[in-house]
Amino acid sequence: MTGSYILLESLLKEEVETIFGYPGGQIIPVFDALYDYKDKLNHILVRHEQGATHAAQGYARVSGKPGVVLLTSGPGATNAITGIADAMMDSTPMVVIAGQVPTEALGSDAFQETDLVGITQPITKWSYQIRSAEDIAWAVARAFYIATTGRPGPVVLDFTKNAQNENLEEFTYQKCQFIRSYIPNIDIDNSKINEAVNIINNSKRPLAIIGQGVILANAEEEVLDFLEKGNIPAATTLMGLSAIPTDHPLNKGMVGMHGNVGPNMMTNQCDVLIAIGMRFSDRVTGNLKTYAKQAKVIHFDIDPCEIGKNVKPTVGVLGDVKKTIKEVYEKMNNNVHYEWINSFATYENREQDKVVKKEINPIDGRLHMGEVVRKVSEASNKCAVLVTDVGQNQIMATRYFQFSRSRSVITSGGLGTMGFGLPAAIGAKIGAPERTVCCFCGDGGFQMTLQELGTILQSKIGVKIIVLNNNKLGMVRQWQELFFNERYSFTDMINPDFTLIAKAYGIGTAEVNTSEELDSAIKDMFKDDKPYLLVANVEKKGLVFPMTPGGTDVTNILLEKKQ
Amino acid sequence: MKEKILYTVTIFSENQVGLLNQITIAFNRRQLNIETLSVSPSALEGVHKFTITTWTDKDTIEMVINQIDKRVDILKAYYNTDDELVFQEIALYKIATESLLKAGTLETLIRKYDIRVLEITETCVVLEKTGLYDETQQLFHELNDSIGVLQFIRSGRVAITRSRLERLSDMLADIEEKYKNLM
Ligand SMILES: Cc1ncc(C[n+]2csc(CCOP(=O)(O)OP(=O)(O)O)c2C)c(N)n1
Fold first, then answer.
1. How many angstroms separate the alpha carbon of residue A395 from the centre of ligand 1?
2. Domain that holds residue B142
3. Would you say residue B164 lies in a domain?
4. What are phi and psi of A367, to 5 degrees?
5. Omega into A531 within 30° of 0, i.e. cis?
6. What residues in A contact B183, CB-CB < 8 Å?
7. pLDDT digits over A475-513, tens only?
8. A125: contact with B, CB 8 A cutoff
9. Which residue stretches of A204-257 are H helix?
10. Where are the alpha helices (DSSP H) in A289-420?
């Protein structure tokens, strides 16, 4: 059996069903083998390797299974860098297999040779060069183990062409369950659990912040039990959205730069801040010097690097949050905090009056992003998967979409990658074919990976794409308006007719300018499970509020433009 | 500014290609200069040991160590301050034979600095001194000022901890044991 077949057999052993890929000279033997696996492995031919990585991310985030990417060397591999870096930042399990020049040509600047292992070391959990067929099964097993355990992340296998062609008599595969230098699940320290329980029991004004770690650990139920037993109000980070249902009474919204006023203000009023599977990103904390200084901080995380990195916790509880939160839940007292929870209302009302109402029920006759998002969300019965691009569209989508189940938000949080949305949506739909997938993009970001409409056409991917078209690089324009004296340097966009592009790809489409048009287009969009491109021409000068300007105090929240 | 002191970082790794790169990435990202570096096979077969010194503060070194320790192929990383270590560096000095003989101070120098003479040829002499940085540096100055040094090289620090630290082999045995229990 050649190395190429060994690779595919190994992928089957890891229960891989779908591969996102693009062929080329140094991976041709694997694609040749793939020809014989058409009925076992669903290969999605993308239009650009960046698209393959984001699609794999979308697939992984919605399904919990690792995304698999197959590419050629050189430009194929370098095109994948953005997605690999994105997956690293957002802890997404992904295995990227790239072709490489033959071992004897390594280092000679051979055609389409790049030092992929060198390039990707800082942005992967592990990258490894396979130089002989004997290595393949071992490396694939390790790759999947590393990508999916502990804090998940991307892994790169740099697969030399000679190894792809080399023959081995026998194929044996053993799943990896142990690497002596890699201990993904640290034993729980019971004394830390007890300290945490003690502080939580005595807390009068607790606030929990839930990050993506809860989703990655499949710990949604444990966390909800914990919140309910302690009667603890909670907020999520952008990445933690949908870990608890939007309309749960203890869900106080989202923290961070464009999060909700309540939880951001309460961060600096609570007496105990309980961080679960989150990493105190600067987009969450703002100025660290004034962040939650009054509070005892309890930080639950699986990654030892995150505990104390940005915020020094009173207690750091290392371990899988599915286990640690359960332990805490079992040991803690029932509690009530009605008064404290009710005190969020003032902030909630203020945000409703100053921001939300205007955004979802605008009275100026123009379409607003929030309105479009909320209407699409309602039309999909709050159970769709939301995929976003980056910019104002991302914030509006995550603020106004509503969720009833976990794994419903796929957005580029840590890297903030424009162009993420469309390919990620493709992956999400393949990872959850039974779910409706709604992808919100700005006109800028949409044009960064627009070619993936070809993938939608070819592979018949029924995603609903909503372009929130303001003919601007809106988020940058917002900063220019607020912080750069309205000097609009290169943020205007002259756009093509997006509906014509949709038509060229055989995708149903509509363009809307008013609420009425929007309503009927949404109906049209959801009439079947086919792909659809809805172009909503929204207010050009829209601003996203609330906003905490970067690096300032978490409580320094702007609700409108200062006159 | 947080106070910067010299930390000695010890890293045990699997013997794999590209490990030094992974380690230096962690230093680079926190803008740390590597002061000295020494790498060699450790007492355990297949395990490499890195000894690195760097000037920084406690918070930063802790984060760098965590990042390094987290890498898949790293077995263990930790840091120490000088008071917790016995450590040495080795320095070699090449001097023109003629100048050395002319100066006539070799015997005094040997006694004063505990020097070893590694090689004497017609043209040059190679001296070796093992010691702390200040000591090898002082000898360099003395030789260079009085005789002239043709070539000078100093190794990275090698260090051994004073405390009865948990040994790597015990740690590995523990890990393997736990794994067996899991199965
Ligand atoms: C690849 C990439 N390039 C640049 C940026 C910087 N950036 C962040 S938001 C933004 C504007 C996005 O404009 P658009 O896609 O039209 O969305 P809008 O903000 O208008 O909703 C830019 C340029 C980025 N995040 N990613």
1. 12
2. 86-158
3. no
4. -75, 140
5. no
6. 177
7. 999 999 999 999 999 999 999 999 999 999 999 999 999
8. yes
9. 212-216, 220-230
10. 321-331, 338-342, 345-351, 357-360, 369-379, 392-400
Kindly report the CA angle at A63 between A61 and A64, in degrees rounded to 5?
A: 70
Q: Is A118 helix (H, G, I), strand (E, B) or coil?
A: helix
Boundary residue ending a domain (B64, B80, B96) = B80
Residues B71 and B92 in one domain: no
* Closest Cβ opposite residue B175 in set A125, A183, A309: A183
The residues of A assigned a catalytic role are 49, 111-112, 161, 475
Contact A181 B74 (CB under 8 A): yes
The beta-carbon neighbor of B72 closest among A117, A146, A303 is: A146
The reply to whether A129 touches chain B by the CB within 8 Å rule is yes
> Tens-digit pLDDT profile for chain A (563 aa)?
999 999 999 999 999 999 999 999 999 999 999 999 999 999 999 999 999 999 999 999 999 999 999 999 999 999 999 999 999 999 999 999 999 999 999 999 999 999 999 999 999 999 999 999 999 999 999 999 999 999 999 999 999 999 999 999 999 999 999 999 999 988 999 999 999 999 999 999 999 999 999 999 999 999 999 999 999 999 999 999 999 999 999 999 999 999 999 999 999 999 999 999 999 999 999 999 999 999 999 999 999 999 999 999 999 999 999 999 999 999 999 999 999 999 999 999 999 999 999 999 999 889 999 999 999 999 998 899 999 999 999 999 999 999 999 999 999 999 999 999 999 999 999 999 999 999 999 999 999 999 999 999 999 999 999 999 999 999 999 999 999 999 999 999 999 999 999 999 999 999 999 999 999 999 999 999 999 999 999 999 999 999 999 999 999 999 999 87
- Cβ within 8 Å of B, A 292-321: 303-305, 308-309
Q: Is the pTM of this model over 0.90?
A: yes
**Could A126 and B72 be called an inter-chain contact, meaning their C-beta atoms sit closer than 8 Å?**
yes
Residue of A nearest to B12 (CA): A181
| CB proximity B183 to A under 8 Å | yes
Q: Do residues A150 and A303 make contact, with C-beta atoms less than 8 angstroms apart?
A: yes
Q: Do B67 and A305 touch (CB under 8 A)?
A: yes
Helices (H), A233-298: 261-267, 282-285
Q: Find out if CATH 3.40.50.970 is the number for domain A362-537.
A: yes
Ligand 1 centroid to Cα of residue A555, in Å, is 25
A-chain CB neighbours of B72 within 8 Å are 125-126, 146, 179, 181-182
Between chain A and chain B, the number of residue pairs with CB atoms below 8 A apart is: 44
Q: How far apart are CA A274 and CA A270, in angstroms?
A: 10
Query: Are the C-beta atoms of residues A558 and A549 closer than 8 Å to each other?
Result: yes
Q: Which residue's alpha carbon is at the smallest distance from atom 11 of ligand 1?
A: A473
Domain ranges of chain A: 3-165, 190-343, 362-537
Angle at A253 (CA atoms; ends A248, A256), nearest 5 degrees: 155
- The fold adopted by the segment(s) A3-165 is Rossmann fold (3.40.50)
Per the listing, tokens 């045995």 go with B173
* B176 domain-assigned: no
Query: What CA–CA distance (Å, rounded) separates A356 from A370?
Result: 8
**Could you tell me if A137 and A173 are in contact, meaning their C-beta atoms sit under 8 angstroms apart?**
yes
Please tell me the CATH code under which domain A190-343 is placed. Answer: 3.40.50.1220
Angle at A73 between CA A68 and CA A74, to 5 degrees: 125
| Alpha carbons A270 and A204: distance in angstroms, whole number | 8
